[in-house]
Structures are given as structure tokens and as C-alpha cells.
Amino acid sequence: MNKTVAIIMLWVIHVSALIGIAIGNADFFFPKSPFTLIYLAVLTIWFFPVNSVKKIGLFLLCFSTGMAVEWIGVHTGTLFGDYHYGVNMGWKLDGIPYLIGSNWALLTFITHELSRKYISNKWFIPIAGASLMVALDFFLEQICDIAGFWHFTGGAGWFNYLCWFLIAMVLHAILLRFKLKGDLKISLHLYVVQLIFAIALWIIITI
């Protein structure tokens, strides 16, 4: 798989979805979201790359942590608030989409790489990485309901973002301890495309 072609396809998928939704074809594009998330995961695993015992172990740790905290969140409401996952997130394990665990892992990996490259002080790397994850989560929260991703009763409160930040910061600290390194270019594109998609879709659905 050629990295440049893969990145071009990444942007084509997201821009096409935005255009399609903007012209009234949301019912076609939103149910295809699991395929987009699978593509994001494939790009991360292939190009980051997740190609050693250490990286596989860390990826599984982030995946398992994501699944666990989301299970606690959905079934108890104690971490992120009162919410549940919708129909457009793919197959689920006891109400928790497997792809949300995958997304926890890939977001932690790519935001860690961005933070590691641009932050010189190692003590601030987990803070920066967690902040990038929460920033993306904030914009995703604005579109999650209409996209059929997840639904909050009463909306996502400040405690949701605090828990996200603290859990993410712990994961980033672990990745820093194990000196995780990856591909900056793929990390940057994977993060920015999701951020722009969420912001643009928020604008589309509010005008």
C-alpha cells in the first residue's frame, strides 16, 4: 500500500462524505461510518506502523482501556455521563462498539506522536496528547447524535471531558515510558482529517 495514495483516499472519503451530507444524502453516508473507522485503523496499523511486540502490546492496552472505560461509562454513567451508542458505530460487545476501542488506540497513538514531535519537555507530552484527544472529542460531541454515533441524555458535561483528559493522559504517560515512536506524516493526516470533518459537519448541520 502506497502511503501517498492512502492519504489521498483518506481525504477523498471524508470530503466526499461532507459534500454528500451537505446536499442531503446523510442517510447514505452516516451508516457507512464503520467502514471509514476501519480504514483509519488499517492506516494506523500499516503506516504508523504497529509492527513490533511492544507496539502491538501498547495498541491492545489502549484498545482494552478504551473498551473498559466506555463499558463503565455506558453501564454506570459514572465517567462520561448518561449515554449510549447508536446504530452507526458497527458491531458491539455488550453495547460498546469494537471500533470505539480501536479509535481510542489509534487516537492515542497518533496524538502521542504529534506531541512527542512538537513538545520538547517530556512532562508536557502526556498533557499535550490528552489535550489533542479532548479537543477532537469536543467537536465529535457536537455531531455524534445526528450522525447516529452516540447519544447523551442532556448532552456531554464538563465531567465527560475531564475523565477523557485524565484517562488519555495516563495512556500517554505509558506510551512515553515505553518510548513509542511512529510516523509523523500519517499521524498528522489522521488527526487533522477527523478534526476538520467534525468541525465542518458541525457547521453544515447548524446552518
Write a structural description.
With 207 residues, this protein is mainly alpha-helical. The chain has one domain. 72% of the residues lie in helices and 5% in strands. The protein has helices at residues 3-22, 26-29, 33-47, 53-76, 98-118, 125-147, 158-177, 184-206, and strands spanning 83-85, 92-93, 96-97, 150-152. The protein has a two-stranded antiparallel ribbon. β2 and β3 form a beta hairpin. α1 packs antiparallel against α3 (33-47). The longest helix is centred in the N-terminal third of the chain and has 24 residues, at 53-76. The chain is globular, with a radius of gyration of 16 Å. The mean pLDDT is 96.
- The average pLDDT is 96
Report the total helices. 8
**Structural class label:** mainly alpha
Order of strands in the sheet with most strands = 1-4
Q: What fraction strand?
A: under 5%
- As a percent range, the share of helical residues equals over 70%
What pattern of helices and strands is seen along the backbone? HHHHEEEHHEHH
N-end to C-end Cα span: 39 Å
Outline the biggest β-sheet. Answer: 2 strands, antiparallel
CA-atom Rg in angstroms: 16 Å
Envelope shape:
globular
By oligomeric state, this entry counts as single chain
Flag low-confidence runs.
Answer: none
- Estimate nothing, just give the exact number of structural domains: 1
Total strands: 4
